[in-house]
Amino acid sequence: MEKNFQGHWDPVMMGKREADVMGEADSACSASGHHPHGGQSLWQHCDLQEERIYMDYNATTPLESEVILAISEALHEAWGNPSSSYLPGRKAKNIINRSRENVARMVGGRAEDIIFTSGGTEANNLVFYTAIKYFWEARGAAEINGQEKSHQNGKSVLPHIITSNVEHDSVKLTAENLSREGKADVTFVPVSKVTARVEVEDVMAAVRPTTCLISVMLANNETGVLMPIRELCQRVRSLNKQQPAPRILLHTDAAQAIGKVRVDAQELGVDYLTIVGHKFYAPRVGALYVNGPGTTTPVFPMFFGGGQERNFRPGTENTPMIAGLGKAAELVSTHLSRYETHLRETTLYLEQRLQDVFGREKIHFNSHFLGSETLPNTCNVSILGPELKGRRVLSSCRRLLASVGAACHSNRGDRPSHILLSSGIPPEVAANALRLSVGRGTTHSDVELAVEDLRQAVQQLEGLS
Fold first, then answer.
1. Is it true that the peptide bond before 246 is cis, omega within 30 degrees of 0?
2. Who is most buried in 117, 123, 218, 410, counting CB within 10 A?
3. Is 408 a known active-site residue?
């Protein structure tokens, strides 16, 4: 079993690490003389007596104990259909309503602004689907009024979407698919190779008369860089006031930011904000913040059913998981300042210990960029050396559980992260990258054990060269 965020061995983490490392290298347990075989679990061949140190909180987080309790209580006491009028159904409905209020409070919205989804991928897809449909409905109304034409210079007009070149796959691949199917024109604005941010001027330069959506993540999951969403929204809103409908819709995927830094959708000025539970110690469900869904801001359902979630996202609600999401949101609202302080202090200590042990000349931080703010918990680091590819180093570690980048990119072999390359990190440095992300319960002792594990792994690999 794996160590949880309070320093205890946690089976939740065991499955996560197994998924991360299976297939990375057959020598994952080479330090202890064991090797994985066939379809058996890697962990059957490793020495489980050593303490494991989990530093992959950007990939997923364990459930807080209060979250587990909320889920358990809902399973036992609120098993009824939330649409039913008798007691178990009313209990379920009350839990959902309370959770909606807690999630809304966490992101600075109103309860009616929250639509529960299966997770961040569905929420992101819902935004893109809505933007395309909204464009055509508004365009159709304009054509009827003689204001627009569906063809220009003999070519059909397509809705235009702007996003960045460092987005999560649930945005990147959705946009690429829309472009490939001829449903939208897409511009991927490159991040600066100096700041690793999407610069506001670059986004504004990409705007066209047909632009219907701008979607830029709030924080990058590999570099930890915070994007200038508030400034971007201010510029786009000013532009929207100067031009006829359809207005440009604004979306940010806040998956990595929530629970680590303050997130206020109203202050940011977005129309949509994606919420992902398993990034802040909640279960694997999510929500979409919409500023006035169906009134101020359009939402078009992707499928149809029994009318749940005000018809925006029909399907009988997953009451226990929504209860867990609500409790986790309540904890963020109550304790965010303490969480953020601990994460930042622990990350700074980790970075200092890496420099102390390996020396400044052998360490390159891929999460340090001139003029950019970053998440308080993310240390993306390369230990320099031709034999020290990130996957090789992690496969040689006996204790450290971490990743070389986003979990959804774990099948891409030893190719350097396109996010790091896009951010100006040289290929030979990016190939050695380790993404170390700390959690609420990561201690200085954990840091010492992790750095020592890395030191031994590096020593082993350089000794083999």
1. yes
2. 123
3. yes
